[in-house]
Design brief:
Order of helices and strands: HHHHEEHHH
Radius of gyration: 28 Å
Helix content: over 70%
Strand order of the largest sheet: 1-2
Strand content: under 5%
Structural class: mainly alpha
Mean pLDDT: 79
Distance between the termini: 56 Å
Number of domains: 2
Low-confidence stretches: none
Number of strands: 2
Length: about 150
Amino acid sequence: MLLIVAVLVFLVLRLTPGDPAAILAGDAASSEQIAEIRKDLGLDRSIAVQFGIWAQNLLRGEFGHSYFYKMEVTQLIGQRIEPTLALATLTILIAVAVSIPLGVIAAWRCLTSVSGLTCESAVSEYPEHSARANPDRNSFVFIRYLLTLG
């Protein structure tokens, strides 16, 4: 599966319209300059050879050079990994901080309006149990809610 994804990523990158060498060279570049850039980038080789080089570099952790930022891609990833991990950690902490108390409240206040709303929102991810997908369940949820008020 990973090989299929790698091939698809490579093909999307390589078979997009436009010539990367011509784009890098600019509008005023001569055909010799474009050919030199194509040779430097390895674009003059067959697609199979390009894929082999790309996969080999990927396995070694050599992601290349960003022509936009004018630095190595691994350095760019290193600069952005800390805020990414901080954001992911914060997201997990918020999800746990909200879901555990809601689960405890739902278990503690069994068959109350709070529990009914919590349970309904939890099972709404499963269409066969959701009140939105099963109209008969709407009346059941409403009747259960009315019974908990009294």
